[in-house]
Amino acid sequence: MSRSYRIDEIAAALGAEAAGALDLEVTAAAEPGDAGLGDLALAMSPNYADALGAGRARAAILWPGADWEALGLEAAIFAPRPRMAMSGLTRMLDPGQGFAPGIHPSAVIDPSAILGGDVSIGPLTVVGAGARIGDGSVIGPHCHVGCDAVLGDGAYLREMVSIGARAEIGARFIALPGARVGSDGFSFVTPEVSGAENARKSLGDQGDAKAQAWVRIHSLGNVCIGDDVEIGANSTIDNGTIRATRIGSGSKLDNLVHVGHNTRVGRDCLLCGQVGVSGSVEIGNSVVLGGQTGVVDNIFIGDGVIAGGGTKILSNVPAGRVVMGYPAVKMETHTEIYKAQRRLPRLLRSVAALQKAVSKTGASD
Amino acid sequence: MSRSYRIDEIAAALGAEAAGALDLEVTAAAEPGDAGLGDLALAMSPNYADALGAGRARAAILWPGADWEALGLEAAIFAPRPRMAMSGLTRMLDPGQGFAPGIHPSAVIDPSAILGGDVSIGPLTVVGAGARIGDGSVIGPHCHVGCDAVLGDGAYLREMVSIGARAEIGARFIALPGARVGSDGFSFVTPEVSGAENARKSLGDQGDAKAQAWVRIHSLGNVCIGDDVEIGANSTIDNGTIRATRIGSGSKLDNLVHVGHNTRVGRDCLLCGQVGVSGSVEIGNSVVLGGQTGVVDNIFIGDGVIAGGGTKILSNVPAGRVVMGYPAVKMETHTEIYKAQRRLPRLLRSVAALQKAVSKTGASD
Amino acid sequence: MSRSYRIDEIAAALGAEAAGALDLEVTAAAEPGDAGLGDLALAMSPNYADALGAGRARAAILWPGADWEALGLEAAIFAPRPRMAMSGLTRMLDPGQGFAPGIHPSAVIDPSAILGGDVSIGPLTVVGAGARIGDGSVIGPHCHVGCDAVLGDGAYLREMVSIGARAEIGARFIALPGARVGSDGFSFVTPEVSGAENARKSLGDQGDAKAQAWVRIHSLGNVCIGDDVEIGANSTIDNGTIRATRIGSGSKLDNLVHVGHNTRVGRDCLLCGQVGVSGSVEIGNSVVLGGQTGVVDNIFIGDGVIAGGGTKILSNVPAGRVVMGYPAVKMETHTEIYKAQRRLPRLLRSVAALQKAVSKTGASD
């Protein structure tokens, strides 16, 4: 974090307007109230005006039209879409994890693995036979890249990531600590029809199936991941059974997310923390699944679907729908049901009163 | 995957009938539409007939009675129970992770550990003092086998698995990347009665308990696991407090599953992705818990219970029951409640209309 | 577990009364029915009286007032608050993981890292540049302590824990296998307003936002953790964006818990298994979140709030409230709604009958 940046340099990187002492230098970003003399305060809405006064920043990123001089600043950058400005700024100022360049001598790299130019491999990392790692990739400490796995250019793996054998991953892949790509699918079968199979077909009746042992179906498929994908800490993506499990380009998975075997996630999806997607699910493009959303197996979720936090999706969802609840329903239906539920106890009392009243009139049979 | 298999060899392994060129050789399995000349297409229901035509397979596994010649094939295997055939076939064709045989020189193995015959230990794996690993086991890279832990014959650990001290594990154990056996139980107590204790007893009232610090209860028990158990990626099984936490033979846990301290899971259970079982739960045999099911502590779940995805089990469930919902109710009750819920807003309007109508007749008090 | 303890030594450590042969020695604790001659049986309520007879223990911890001689014991300790006694006893008898003292030669420790007195570092652990580890800490095998991270005195890290760069952690920190401190926050933005943003504002309407790629917001903040904090196996705590993500002193997180970027958890909180807290949440002191509870972003949860298992908290919760359900409501409301729901199908039939009856009287419009 010791590097410093000029105000005009930051503004140019963000494609933003700036004013005041454009050659002023800052070394870090800070919340307005915490900012020191060398910090760039982030005050992108008028709500932060007071906090700016409490801090000591000489420069800030401000909302469009802010009167930076009246706010006591020497320089300002103006951000019409604050979070986009945050993106550029944080990329610029990110000090990273301090992973050293080069190949650490304690790494165990199979001689048949092919490393691109300018690849760094952290201490105690294992790279298997036939694995290929693209140019400019940073493989952190304690990672495992399996046999014949392929990582595109510019991969960035934090510590303790594992990539299973034969995984195929595009460019600019990011994996956070403990992410697992290419675990085996959870797929078992009983020699004869099981109670669980009966219950699914009949929606609740196990029939007379007897208890049986589970026999494993191995995963012969791999995981295929597009470009610009990010996988969160301790998330898991299973291999497909015959075909690949797929994550489309531009999709981002948060921490502790599970994606089952054979599932295909489209492009530019967001799967938030602890989302669980079963096997053989087809998820379209630009789908957003809120935290702890669950998806049963063998269904589809259309393009642009948005699920609120905690939603349990038990059947197909057409494109463009916003859903919530357990089981998932349209957001507006969910809100209506929720309101009605809160009135339920009162409703029961009303109906009891009505029954009594109607019975008095002798109207009931 | 370079080995090839004759059609009659595969049929014999599956105990299935075959027809046509029984000496034809295949090297891999494929979906019908993706299959190349050297692949065995998997087309176990008539739904795949068209896709077979689109692919180039010369041999396929087909549904019983299929006219393989009319489908343009040179050889066919017939599968009366398709997923059982998948089990045999995928076991046969599984190329594995390519873990090398033998003990990798970078592994750190305590001299007092006892390794069975034909054991392989991957690079950078740690085996603690007094640990015992059964014959024919494959311990992947970056694993940790704690002090005095016992693994039965034929164990297979993918990369980065940790087995805590004193764990006792039966034969043919499979653990996927990042699985944790023998983490410490989550058990804390306050010096005096806490608000949470009061709220549990009164179903909602914290009483006048004051804020207190939590004091740790250590886990002296271990984890005991039967034969033929599989634990998914990044799943966690806690040690018991005094007695063991137990997973019965034949049970399979998916990814990101949590099993709390003292809990006993019976034989042949399936715990699907992200299931969470609290401490001191008694789970019977042949229980299936759908993805993201949660189970509160100190209850029992009888033999053969099946819980749908997302179920939150808050009280005892008798044997054989199929449940769903939050809180869990019988599947048929859940369906009935769900349908009624969707009619709730309309119901509210109906009751309002009735009230108005009855009030007109002067019938109400 | 070979060390033995005298009855009076244990009683003194627990601050408890004892009776009988105070010099009797025990080596382990056991459930009453399983106890051998050298075990201390744990029989803290009269429910265990029969089991005591079935086991072979000569000494036990009993409920206050128990007639130890009639129970056939030679010595007894009396525990007025059983779980507090369990805490002291299990701490005393915990055999630990057997991690060896000293610095293992296979550990990769940057020369600029500063280790306190009496620190042990397990095999194959990496300690980054500028990291500081407090006196008496035990860092297990396969751990990663990032650059400039600070661990207070008496830290205890099980195997495969990762601590990100610049994390600041107080005294007596405990981290279980696979815990991740300092993963990157899940924070993305689209160049223009997205459908998800529209849907949140309108509670369900995506508007006419077009599909766009997600741009990353990097995490410049770190994780700050107080004293006496414990983080469970495979749990994840993300770095803050600009400010720190904070976990207050005395708070305990169970396994597979997720805490998002910028969130602040207060003092003495319990986050049970698989709890997920989104970003920028403010959680007060002494909050207890039951297993699988989810919390949406940018809300607050007041001091002393208790959430039952599976609760989805979608809006602010005032201090002291006990909540449950999806969405979270007061526990008593949840119970009332739940009872009413089960009566819903019957209610629908009653209202239909009423409609018919009222229609007969000619009362309806």
Question: What features would you describe in this structure?
Answer:
3 copies of one chain form a homotrimer. By secondary structure, chain A is of the alpha/beta class. The first copy, chain A, is 17% helix and 26% strand. Chain A contains 6 helices and 39 strands. The model of chain A has no long low-confidence stretch (mean pLDDT 94). Chains in contact: A-B, A-C, B-C. At the A-B interface, strand 21, helix 4, strand 22, helix 5 and helix 6 of A face strand 4, helix 3, helix 5 and helix 6 of B.
List the helices and strands and how they pair.
Three copies of one chain form a homotrimer.
Chain A: E1 5-6, H1 7-14, E2 17-20, E3 25-26, E4 28-30, E5 39-43, H2 49-54, E6 59-62, E7 75-78, H3 82-93, E8 108-109, E9 114-115, E10 120-121, E11 126-127, E12 132-133, E13 138-139, E14 144-145, E15 150-151, E16 156-157, E17 162-163, E18 168-169, E19 174-175, E20 180-183, E21 188-189, H4 195-202, E22 215-216, E23 223-225, E24 230-231, E25 236-238, E26 245-247, E27 252-253, E28 258-259, E29 264-265, E30 270-271, E31 276-277, E32 282-283, E33 288-289, E34 294-295, E35 300-301, E36 306-307, E37 312-313, E38 322-324, E39 329-330, H5 331-342, H6 344-360
Parallel strand pairs in A: 4-5, 5-6, 6-7, 8-11, 9-12, 10-13, 11-14, 12-15, 13-16, 14-17, 15-18, 16-19, 17-20, 18-23, 19-24, 20-25, 23-26, 24-27, 25-28, 26-29, 27-30, 28-31, 29-32, 30-33, 31-34, 32-35, 33-36, 34-37, 36-38
Antiparallel strand pairs in A: 1-3, 2-7, 21-22, 38-39
What would you say about this model in short?
Chains A, B, C: It comes from Pukyongiella litopenaei. With 365 residues, chain A is an alpha/beta fold.
